[in-house]
Structures are given as C-alpha cells and as structure tokens.
C-alpha cells in the first residue's frame, strides 16, 4: 500500500469519525454523567463494536448486509430501538453526585452495542474498503493496515469528544442543571434513534 493511498484513507476515515453520531453522544454523555475516566471503558467498547464491523467487512459478510434489504432493516430497527431506549433511560435518570473517580467497566458493553447496532458503519466500510484495496498486494495485510488505522482514528476522535465534554462537567453542578443535561442528552439519543429508523440505503 502506497503512502498516498493510506493518507487518502486516513483523511476519509477522520471525516467519517468526526461526524457526530451515536458514538460521540455516548462518549460525551458518559463524561458528563460519570466523569472523564469512565469514558475510557466506553470508548474501548465503541472500538470493539467497530472491530466487529471491520471483521465482518473483511470476511465478506458486510457485502451480504449491503445486498440484503431484510437484514439491513432488522439491524437498523434494532439499533434505532436501542438508541431510543438509551435516550429514555437517560431522560429518566435520577440526579446524583458526579463520580469522577475510577473508571466504570459496566459502561463497556452498552458502548459495544451502540456501534454494533449501527448498520451504517458496516455499509460505510463495505463501500470504503474496496476503494483502497490494491489487488497486487496481499489482501489481509492491507485490511490490517486499514482496520488498524480506522480503530486508532476513531479512538482518538472519541477522546477528543470526551475532552470537549469536560467543560460541561464544571457547569452542571446543581440538581436542576443535571436534570436538564439528562433530558438534553436523552433527547439527542432518541433523535439519533429516530434518524436511524428513517435511514435508507
């Protein structure tokens, strides 16, 4: 793989990761509610979900999803329902004191599901990967480079979103502000779910 091809993939992946979606909302909501350190298992969970998508795209199942309308619809509605449920849970979350100490491992698996139930991610990867694969080079080495780049870029972008959420922690210091924050992020999650439900290929 040439440097120019890799740089083009890097820029494309960076733009895709920077576009705010469910992962960014999950990361920022986690920071605001539980503290910065708690974002670490959440970000790791998002990357595991992304890795699963990368593996599916690598073995060709992504192409099956891209062709199967039924499979796409099933995953889409599961993802939409999960985001709406997360939003409703956040909306009704009780006001509690910030706990910015140790990271909370229980935040890992919900983050995995956030990425796993987003069919747009794997469709993006299925459409993206072939544009940067060269038949003259070994397939798996190219997939390893592209997949590793994608994971690293997304992780760094999520760290950036977590950093952006830090000032909100300093603002949300009263029960009324925390309740407002819960409802804002809850509404954003539900809006993301509705948007996903209305998505088409």
Automatic annotation (TrEMBL):
Gene: rhtB
Key words of the record: Cell membrane, Membrane, Transmembrane, Transmembrane helix
One Pfam family from the record: LysE
Similarity comment: family membership: Belongs to the Rht family.
Keyword Plastid assigned: no
Record lineage: Bacteria, Pseudomonadati, Pseudomonadota, Gammaproteobacteria, Aeromonadales
Superkingdom assignment: Bacteria
Descriptive protein name: Homoserine/homoserine lactone efflux protein
Segments traversing the membrane: 48-66, 107-133, 139-168
Topology within the bilayer: Multi-pass membrane protein
Annotated localization: Cell membrane
